[in-house]
Structure formats: structure tokens, C-alpha cells
Amino acid sequence: MTRVLMVCLGNICRSPLAEGILKSKVIGSKVFVDSAGTGAYHVGEQPDTRSIAIANLNGIDITDQKARKFNVNDFELFDIIYVMDNSNYKNVISLAKNSQEKSKVKLILNEVFPNENLDVPDPYYGGEFGFKNVYKMLNEACEVIAKKIN
Ligand code: 4NP
Fold this sequence. Notes:
Elements: E1 2-8, H1 14-25, E2 31-37, H2 49-57, H3 74-77, E3 80-83, H4 86-93, H5 99-102, E4 105-107, H6 128-149
Parallel strand pairs: 1-2, 1-3, 3-4
């Protein structure tokens, strides 16, 4: 069983989409997928309505997700921690106890553009287009991830 955690800032826009998309591409008995945020602003909330909408358009239901904050136990519970941007990377790495924990943390777009350290842009303050763009990026990344871990 491979355990994958998707991490963004609020756990309401990007990482819930990443969780839903990856779940739709993997064999459930072989892969466990969850998501979390480095910030606590939205803990307990459903994903943003714009994330729910773009997921729905693509046949994915993410309405049962609830935002939670990333915590240090996640380094033990998960094999791979995909972060959405360089800011999330800094925040998560700063909580790691050792190099083994640090090595679990990866920028998700490096799966599509190796070593480029690109961000999945935060769509929270933008409009619908941002969410469509984020969906496309995460769909490509999750396609690569699913091929590796299935
Ligand atoms: P996310 O987007 O990190 O993709 O979930 C955000 C959601 C909320 C906030 C920032 C980013 N916020 O500052 O409330």
C-alpha cells in the first residue's frame, strides 16, 4: 500500500482536487490518498465551491472531503508528500525531523517538469479560469503519479 498526501495552504482549493483526481486514477486497495493544508484557516470546511464545480465537470465528487491541518505525524503516516508550491515546500520541510522525512516531500509539478520546481498557482483570489488551469496541471501530474504507483 502506497500512502500519498497532497498538501497546499488552505486544503480547500488545490490539494482536495489533487486528492480527488489521484483517487480516480489509482487502484484503491493499493493506494491510500489524503490531503491537508499548512494553514488552519479553513479546518473542517468542505472544498471551495469552485474546486467542487471543476471536479464535477470532470466526473469527480470531492464533496465528502473536510479540510485539516498538516501535522508532524503525517511524516510517519505517508510515503510521499506532494506539495503544490514552493511556499508549501518550505513550510512542510521546516517541520521535518530528519533527512528521511525531508526526502518524502516533493513538488507535485516536478512529476511533469522534472527539476523545474514550478508552482501550482494558488487560485483562491482569482476566477474560474484559475481553477480550470489548476485542474489541468493536477490532472497531468496525477496521471504520471498513478502510472508510477499503481
Ligand atoms: P489552497 O488555496 O491552498 O489551494 O487551498 C487557498 C485557500 C485559502 C487561502 C489561501 C489559499 N486563504 O488564505 O484563506
